[in-house]
Each structure stands twice: as C-alpha cells, then as structure tokens.
Amino acid sequence: MTAEKMRVCIVTPQQSGGGAEYQIQCLIEALLQSNSHEISLLVRHTAPPPPPTAYRVVKIGRSNEMPRFGYTMDAIPLYRALRRIAPQVIYQRVACGYTGICAWYARHRGARMIWHVASDSDLTRRGLVAGRNPLRPLLEKRSIEYAIRHANQIVVQTHHQADLLQRTYARSAEAVIPNFHPQPKECIDKAGPISVIWIANFKPLKQPEAFVRLAAQLHDLSDVRFVMVGAPAAGSGDQKWSGDLMAAIRATPNLDYLGEKSQDEVNALLARAHIYVNTSLFEGFANTFIQAWMRDVAVVSLYVNPDGVFDRESVGIHAGSEDELARVVRRLIADASSRSGYVLRGRRYAAQSHSMQNVQRLIQLIDAAPGALSSPDPRAEAPLKSGS
User: Fold this and answer.
1) Which helix (H) or strand (E) element contains residue 101?
2) Residues with Cβ < 8 Å from 360, sequence gap 6 or more?
3) What is the edge-to-edge ordering of all strands in the sheet holding 175-176?
4) What is the pTM assigned to this prediction?
5) Domain boundaries, the chain
6) Which alpha helices (H) appear in 170-262, and where do they start and end?
7) Does residue 386 contact residue 51 with C-beta atoms inside 8 Å?
8) Which CATH fold topology does 6-180+356-380 show?
C-alpha cells in the first residue's frame, strides 16, 4: 500500500527573481527528490511558461501587479486556495501580507505553518518603506506581526536574526538554518581582465548608487571593468531615483550595466569575476555571498556582516564606509595574493556551512511538523486546477 504524500503549500509573492525565490526553488527540488510530498506553490507573480509538471503552481489574484494596498488584499483568494488544497504544512517565505494570512489559516484549519525569515528588517518594529501609499506598509507589517505571534514554527537564517526575534517579539526561533546552494557547475576561469561585480535588483535599500560612486572613484585603474547586474527599479514612486541612477551609470565609462539575468547567467558571470561588492543597507544572509564564495570571487561588503562572518571567518572584507570600500577594493585589485587568500577561505567556508545538507534540515522540520493528517481531504468536493 502506497503511503499518502504530505500536502505542502509553499506561499510567496513571486515565483522567481531574487535570492529568497531561489532558495524556495532549491527546497522544491529537494522535496521532489524525496517523492513523499505533494507540493503546491502559491504565488501572485508567476514566471513565464512553460509551467512545471512535477508540482502545482497556483496563481493568487488575476494579475502580476501588487494590489494597491498590498498583499493583504489577497486574503480571500489566498484563503480559498489554501482551503481547496487543505495543506498539512504551509511554508511561507518573504514577509508580506501573505505571512499573516497563512498563519491565520493554519491556526483555524488545523494545518502547521513554518515561516522562514528572509531579511533582518522583518524582525524590527519599524514599518516597511511607505512609498506613495502609507496604508500598504502598515497593513503588511501588522500581518507579519500576527504571524510572528501565531506561526507554529519560525526558522531564521542567522543567530543575529534569532536574537532579534527574541529581543523584539519575545519569540524563540525553532531553528537557525543557513541558506543552501548546490555546488557550481560552471567552468571557473579568471584569466580575463579584472572585473568587479555588483548583483541585486535596483532598490534603494540595495544602494546601487554606492557602487556607481565606487566605479567613478576608481576610474584611474586601467583594464578593470565594473559590472552591475539586476532588474531596474519598478514602481512609480521610484521613477526619479531610478532615472538619476541610470543617468549616473551611463556617465561612468568604466561601468557596464547588464540588466536582469537568470541565476545561471549570474553564476556564469561570477565564475569569471574577481571581486563581488555588496552595498545593501541590510540583508538576511545574501545568497550572492555564497554564490561568489563558491566561484572563487573575493567578497567585499559595505555594511552587511551577517553574524560577523567576515571578521570571524576572514572570508571577505566588511568595509563600513564608502571611503574604506574604495580603499579595500583598490587593494584587492592590485594584490592577487590577498585576493587568493579570501577566495580560498570563502570556498572552504561555503562548502562547510552552506551546502545542500542545510535543505535536508529544513525538510526534516517540514516532515516533523504534525499536520492535519486525519482531516478529510476537501479536494474531492472542490478540485483545484493549476493557475486557478
């Protein structure tokens, strides 16, 4: 007799795009390998076809645009989709209005909810950036805080996040599970001219303008290219900021902007790059750190230093200011021996701390979470079609 597969719903705003979405895809692939889970991915922003065949993608809402007042406005269609699937476990990542909706459903329908923290900012009392609609971040923050109180289990990426969760909300994390990546499949080739790369979608918190200033400050270095990768800013509230940024990029001769790239394309660029620079104000644990370490790229971070990893493990440099950023990048460009030391330590650290063994820890948590195993399966009454 074949054992019944565990019904797992993974809920997030978009199907692809950033580091959190890549982590979700790695989780789905690992769950599929076990062949013991029935997986549904619930998203509003769907990726282009072809759709996956091994698991179900359910679109929330009618368009790919964020609702005017935020993702809490999707409460009814998200709740209905969850009720038709009747998940035993809900895994939610990327804090937003969906986080609280999933927690509410789980609390009232006998499911278990695991919330996976994706950013340090999710665990602070301050609201999200307001933009042109101050009501949206207020609603979303209230939804996130409801989930913090009522989610069955909370997973964090770093010990710093666990401390934030405890200090701010008096809640203990169920587990600290670092991000995970498969081993590189690209041919790593550093024979070309020195390249310094920046990777992120263009958002104010990522501070792409700081990298533009860095390239301009180091314009005297010959045979060095600065490269930016990421989707341009979206949303009417970012138009002036985005316009000024793109004008600055065009005015910087030693800087190339390549636009948005897939994960495979990003990894191919990293396999040829020499230095990766992160300029974010805050992160959770940037996936690009791990991708760079695994591909022999020296890492420099302007502000982000998760769990003090750059100081503790000597796997990169935490600059702390733009002046220091320019100084250390200049030194790494000139000193191949220093770069090699960071590359070697980074590669070893990534293999030890960020391998795919971490995803197995997450799957164990999903499998151990008791769900509504004895509840009737309502799909017999209301079949759910992919994309509904």
Assistant:
1) helix 97-109
2) 30
3) 56-59, 37-43, 6-11, 89-93, 112-116, 153-156, 175-176
4) 0.86
5) 6-180+356-380, 194-353
6) 208-217, 239-250
7) yes
8) Rossmann fold (3.40.50)
Lowest-confidence region among 33-37, 251-255, 276-280: 33-37
Checking phi first, is residue 49 left (phi over 0); if not, alpha (psi -120 to 50) or beta?
Answer: beta
The count of other CB atoms within 10 Å of the CB of residue 386 is 14
Residues 54-109 have pLDDT tens digits of 899 999 987 777 778 888 999 999 999 999 999 999 999 999 999 999 999 999 99
For residue 381, pLDDT over 80 is answered with: no
Q: Examine residue 50 and say whether the peptide bond preceding it is cis (omega within 30 degrees of 0).
A: yes
β-pair partners for 198: 228
Q: Are strands 275-278 and 298-301 parallel, antiparallel or unpaired?
A: parallel
| Intrachain domains 6-180+356-380 and 194-353 with the same fold | yes
224 within 8 A of 331, measured Cβ to Cβ: no
- Domain spanning 194-353 has what CATH number? 3.40.50.2000
The 10s digit of each residue's pLDDT in 337-358 is 999 999 999 999 999 999 999 9
Q: How confident is the model over 233-262, as a mean pLDDT?
A: 88
Block residue for tokens 């020195």: 194
Tokens (6 digits) for 60: 């929330």
